[in-house]
Amino acid sequence: MDTFSKSETREALDSVVIRFAGDSGDGMQLTGSQFTHTTALMGNDLATFPDFPAEIRAPTGTTYGVSGFQIHFASYDIMTPGDEPDVLVAMNPAALTTNIGDLKKGGLLIVARDAFTKSNLKKAGYEQNPLEDHSLSAYRVIDLDIQAMTLAAVEPFGLGTKDALRSKNMWTLGLVLWLFGREYTATVDWLRQKFAKKPEIAESNIAALKAGHAYGETAELPSGIGPYEVPKAKLEPGEYRNITGNDALAWGLTAASKLSGLKLVLGSYPITPASSVLHALARLKSFGVTTFQAEDEIAAVCAAVGASWGGALGVTTTSGPGVALKAEAIGLAIMLELPLVVVDIQRGGPSTGLPTKTEQSDLLQAVYGRNGDSPLCVLAAATPGDCFYMAIEAARIATKFMTPVMLLTDGYLANGAEPWKIPSMAELPKFPVEFPTERPEGFHPYLRDPDTLARPWAIPGTPGLEHRIGGLEKDFNSGNISYDPANHHKMTKTRAAKIAGIAADVPEQQVEVGEASGDLLVVGWGSTYGAITQAVRRAREQGKPVSQVHIRHLFPFARGLDTLLRGFKKVIVPEMNNGMLSKLLRAEFLIDAVGVNKISGQPFKVREIEAAIDSELENL
Amino acid sequence: MDTFSKSETREALDSVVIRFAGDSGDGMQLTGSQFTHTTALMGNDLATFPDFPAEIRAPTGTTYGVSGFQIHFASYDIMTPGDEPDVLVAMNPAALTTNIGDLKKGGLLIVARDAFTKSNLKKAGYEQNPLEDHSLSAYRVIDLDIQAMTLAAVEPFGLGTKDALRSKNMWTLGLVLWLFGREYTATVDWLRQKFAKKPEIAESNIAALKAGHAYGETAELPSGIGPYEVPKAKLEPGEYRNITGNDALAWGLTAASKLSGLKLVLGSYPITPASSVLHALARLKSFGVTTFQAEDEIAAVCAAVGASWGGALGVTTTSGPGVALKAEAIGLAIMLELPLVVVDIQRGGPSTGLPTKTEQSDLLQAVYGRNGDSPLCVLAAATPGDCFYMAIEAARIATKFMTPVMLLTDGYLANGAEPWKIPSMAELPKFPVEFPTERPEGFHPYLRDPDTLARPWAIPGTPGLEHRIGGLEKDFNSGNISYDPANHHKMTKTRAAKIAGIAADVPEQQVEVGEASGDLLVVGWGSTYGAITQAVRRAREQGKPVSQVHIRHLFPFARGLDTLLRGFKKVIVPEMNNGMLSKLLRAEFLIDAVGVNKISGQPFKVREIEAAIDSELENL
Amino acid sequence: MSPSEPAKKLTRKDFTSDQDIRWCPGCGDYAILATIQRTLPTVGADPAKTVFLSGIGCSSRFPYYMNTYGFHSIHGRAPAFATGLKLTNPELDIWVITGDGDGLSIGGNHLMHVLRRNVDLQIILFNNRIYGLTKGQYSPTSLVGLRSPSTPLGSVDMPVTPALLALGAGARFVARSVDTLAKHLGPTFVEARGYRGTSFIEVLQNCPVFHDGAWNHVKDRAHAGQTMLMLEHGKPMLFGDKDGPQQGLRLKPNTLELEVVTLGEGGITEADVLVHDETNRPMAFLLAGLEPPNFPIALGVLLREQAAAYDASVVAQVESAKQSGLTDMDALLRTGHTWTVE
Amino acid sequence: MSPSEPAKKLTRKDFTSDQDIRWCPGCGDYAILATIQRTLPTVGADPAKTVFLSGIGCSSRFPYYMNTYGFHSIHGRAPAFATGLKLTNPELDIWVITGDGDGLSIGGNHLMHVLRRNVDLQIILFNNRIYGLTKGQYSPTSLVGLRSPSTPLGSVDMPVTPALLALGAGARFVARSVDTLAKHLGPTFVEARGYRGTSFIEVLQNCPVFHDGAWNHVKDRAHAGQTMLMLEHGKPMLFGDKDGPQQGLRLKPNTLELEVVTLGEGGITEADVLVHDETNRPMAFLLAGLEPPNFPIALGVLLREQAAAYDASVVAQVESAKQSGLTDMDALLRTGHTWTVE
Ligand SMILES: Cc1ncc(C[n+]2csc(CCOP(=O)(O)OP(=O)(O)O)c2C)c(N)n1
Ligand SMILES: Cc1ncc(C[n+]2csc(CCOP(=O)(O)OP(=O)(O)O)c2C)c(N)n1
Ligand code: SF4
Ligand code: SF4
Ligand SMILES: [Mg+2]
Ligand SMILES: [Mg+2]
Question: For residue B404, which of B280, B301, B279 has the smallest C-alpha distance?
Fold first, then answer.
């Protein structure tokens, strides 16, 4: 663990939001994650939000090629990457123009002055250089010739200008690290490891990093600007790491495979923002994980179902358009009553929509998007780290109830990171699965467990349990094909009852924050957790009568939700969609749940939810 | 028009339900439709229900190979094929065992005695011959050696026994026609036409038909059995024909093409029970109809969307599993804002389910089954003949609002027939479509009509209107790709507002039967129309305070529905699913709509809905 | 064979399920079913380790009739389910049953990819040149001009040749046989089962209800000798009716075309006739496209090329990773940078 | 050209839209775009009647940059949209733009069916052997062993050869060219446009970001003469570096194999070298599979076989039905039995 050793006098701040913005090629994501990492080591709580363009490498200098990374860190526990940045780092004019609107008035703006060339200004749509026309007077500006200083710092390594300039993000990182009293050791280690095979690259980057840091220490910054320090947060004791939602998900699935004793078989097809789960699992072959990049989403889910039938934990990961394609096969899995975990990492829709942006607009597709009466279990993760636990929960329910489970996360959870207290495997409850090996009296594949209504998971290869399954309706008593009218009614009701029964197997719905009854209840699900919690806490600090419920089990709802909802005069439901959970709650409980909807591909700001709370309370 | 000329004394009946049942190979569907046809010519009102096995030609004598055709005809206007048959024709033991349970006590049972062979009895699971063990004493039985009498009748034509026996359905039809005072002329004409190229087949069938008829006239039937007559019904004057839902749909789509002036392009992939729409349209090439049997459902809908972009009325027809596959492409059509008609002829689900049975379980898939916030218009046809009008309505809305429209029918409507008053094309409102040819000031592909919010339908080939569209989010002001957060919010709201605006363009919701407020309201949609109407009428005849609303516009709902629903103490919603419209109504209007659900692959019986009405009224 | 059961000699009955068969009387599917049921016992197949996995169609009802593990999936996707199953348990002997609609229309892409990957499966494509189950629409193998419910004026789609498609996709085992030729079909299945990789077998099948006689030009008993070429590896490609002249296939000198020659005519001897070489891919391409009336149809193994089976490679990669990589979950969770809060 | 506009000579600018191009610097897609934009004016193309229609991928962004009608559809389905559009308006000149992922992975089946139907379209497949847009996963054309984010230990899937797949599916016009070889690419597009039916053109494209140099073994300037065989119909298949020996392809006598021969060595003359015949399908099969190092890659038109275009057949059927069939809707509604209630 690194410690902070400098002795300058530093202004103490409770919390800071920094946004790094530059060209896609400027390495802003790396800069952000290195800053994040060091900040975590410093003991702050933090949350991050990377926001990058759909283009792989948009032409340099364009506004749509701007890549951003926001980090919020504080001396108390925080849950969102922050509403507006206190500090904006803009590596070129395009980054400035697309981000300056978000910077707090009076906020700190760090710009690479020498990137404000005529051609870059033009590409960003500036008629004049904003660094020269007083248009930035509302901010505290540090404009430096970062490119020139980088070139100077890496000169000894004899790189070409193009390569040398690649280190300018490290120079900038060095400066910002110094500004907030952070060491660069961790980044140095990381650079050495990453470029182990190209030591000259590692060393030139390190030189730039150190030069930026040194610049802070030695140069005279305009008065009133830094240096700062952000004291440690009081976090629950334990071993921590940073984790993104997609990594947590991949590890959660792998953990589920260990806890259940099942082989994990992933069928997937690349799609933003889900691909990195496939990548992460592909690296875990040593854990017996099999990954199959299929020819399309349909083949991917079918392979997962085939794997499940064979006795594996069959999983498929995708985003909204992929779920649409998988609908027919998921319907088959429902009919076959096989375990299956379908992960939908939601993005902006409809259609191709906004592939790199976040949204929660697949909820109704998850619950209803299949032909026929085809209920399955729907879960949602609330934070990046929660993806780990919800992956395990999905696998547990899928195998216990022999059902597909749809787990919803989103682009914000997928790429966002948070400090995560690392669990120990021994603490996590095992849920071993047993495959029947003996042929019980009257065996047939749809013979049900009287408690869970689950059918036996008899797997091919088992002598004596040979059977046939398929997508046609089955006879309740024999498992054979049946066109009998009464039987179909009974089977439909049975499938529904089995899924409804999951509610008895999960914890009662709890209030997240506040009392269990009162004036105003804010109900959320998924990645809005942080923003809602923060907003409700702030409102309560101001004495406002508001509570929060956060739903992880979306279908069926957990027991007790009904009572909670009825305990409040008013229920509002913030969602990053045009009103989906609110529809489910209204239909189920007949309460006038009112949507607070943001469909912009961006997560909620705490302020926006506070505003919704205030306006509801006024109208109560 | 045929008339009834016989002079025997006949017992007059108000209404009769007959079910013909036999092996798939026994020609029961033909028998039924010929009886239907003659009955229509006699001026009765009628409704039919064919019910055939999933197997193409199941082995003879098996229970799952039994094919049935039920007809209800009456001297008043009726709306369902009848709850239980008054008359059952059973051509073999399997047909008897699978159908006898439905026959009214005291009903008439006509059996082909000589088909009750040892092997047939065994295949049907009979240990004893039911014709000999008094087990049928609750019915009035006419058991005849129909096979022998058929062979005798067709002997002159020198056919082999197998071929000769093929006419036994005609012998039976002849007898039943006589029993209910019907002429056989129409069937004779039909046989001559159908077998124009094989006159010996035509004539042997005719001989059998006449022999059956003559048998009725000359043989002594057990006392108390017939002959009967069913007087004409009082129908609205006009020219009539029998029509099945799928034929009506095909013709309605073709009519829509005429009324709009658009070329009809169907992209489809065969699937039960939708294939016959493809077949019917493939026969209408002379109307300029283009049909494309695609490689799968996805290609089918994509071809239809491509056709729409090109300026055609793009249509795709399928059933539930096909809709699931089309979801992604329908989402694209929503984003592209192109007209598209998607017809879902629902069948028993989930998955492959009960392919040849009817169900209404795709409603929520239709409304919600896509990624993202992706609203489209959902309509449902109520009767076979209504499929014609709803097809036109779907095309009208699709082209006026530049949106996909999902039209729901089901297996029951698809194959069921009713007498249909033939409209004249001149009476039907035209809805001509104009493609822009001039480039207006500030043209872009998403420039909207201020009233409908529809975008211009500028088609490739038009000079000066070249433009690019696609599945990524569009800028409201330029139609170019936009990742702007506020723009996405605005576009999502705009797409929703456009669809919501359709409500202003369709008639207000009316009460179908009864007062506009009161104690009990029965709300239905789709093919339950007949059963619900009949049940509500009967209840009202008995003085019960019940009204009926039938919904054709399911998304958005028509104006006025809210007021109607709130006008009643209780609302029940009979559906052939596990509760879907009831969910939509609850979520939208917060009224405690209670489902009456039947998920057996069979249409509601009038009696079942009456029972639901009674039990609700008791508990009011 | 499982250790718990004493090895006993199995018979057709052991592979026959208790379900009534629901195909139309006279359907070619019966013959194929009987041949499989008779063949499996002869090669020591274990019902517990044998899986039949199908899509949707008349042919896809097949698994219900086998007393093995069976999976009747959804339309066109059987190869994908089979891939997932095989990756999970490579010990299973998996037979994919599909039709010309299921496998070539909606399922063409999965077929193509399973073939290129070479997953160890047998894929039997029942080619009746029609959609049976949905009542007779034309299929991707229907000939131009076919009148069907969806092509009342005759189809205008150019058909696909299953074996050519398979070869183009990179298939390494391609065979062809006929529903009613049990003596040829059974051994073809045996060869397919023996191949480690995807074996693709097209079976010419008659649908007496919707496309009766689609293969009469091949099967016609009177001329079967002339219309069928029974391939045998290493043997000259000879054919001909018993009492008629012996004919053979020859490569037209210095071209890429095959021609039919008659032994004894113009000095042609057996030595002039091309010898079948199962490992010769260009030859398989030429053979796959032959059809009467100008040529006999080629039956038997057109191509057999050894290559790594996908499932074996995947398993090997996992196993070697297990040897050398991280296996402790707690350690995994702690990879990279961590820190402790006290 | 529309009657309202005076025929003016168009230039590249007329085919260039006002949208910023969003490909990575150095991407091979730029070169292909430039070639299309330069080629279309030379063949009198009318922007109003020209359509670019794509799936999803880097390559599929193409339509945005053309000042013609453009349609950026969903992943893999472009051929199906194009078929519907062409059936609606056969006058349009439709170009389908796809990638090795879009066209061969998720969209393989639509590709195969549009090829067998022979719909009159040009299909350009940008083959960079990688998924560009989703950041570098391996694709169906990636070679075994490729390390990518989804195959960190190397891919084990055997790749597909696009031209072979197309031929297996029944394609009748198959060509191949290279992103940066504008002088070869432009004329290849012209040939493709001239063909009435589906023309399939594979373009070897470099993705400098995720799979830089995937085609270096072909494009390597130093040896380009040896690694590329420029096909010309009716001309002997010769190749070789300018200053090196001239080489040619020959059919190994009495086999189905091609071999490389060197002119002047062992008495080999040009007369021994095989002459390219665009109409010879078996030859196209052999050529499609050639790759360095043992052979040059075959560029140009591998196969051009005349056949009815699907859209033309469909339209003809509709038109002839219009001549002879019922056209009065009121009459249609009254076909069969009707009766009157008074
Ligand atoms: C998604 C989906 N689309 C369509 C169908 C309808 N369908 C069932 S089988 C079939 C075609 C069967 O043809 P083939 O594979 O040749 O089998 P055959 O019946 O001829 O043996 C079709 C179109 C379906 N069940 N599911
Ligand atoms: C239904 C669906 N699945 C997955 C994706 C994600 N996706 C977009 S492009 C692409 C692959 C592109 O590869 P290729 O066609 O080779 O194009 P390139 O980017 O290499 O030009 C994928 C998997 C998507 N957009 N839609
Ligand atoms: S329809 Fe044809 S393929 Fe299907 S079972 Fe009947 S005969 Fe066989
Ligand atoms: S990722 Fe590759 S293919 Fe895509 S634009 Fe960049 S260089 Fe081109
Ligand atoms: Mg078939
Ligand atoms: Mg690619």
Answer: B301
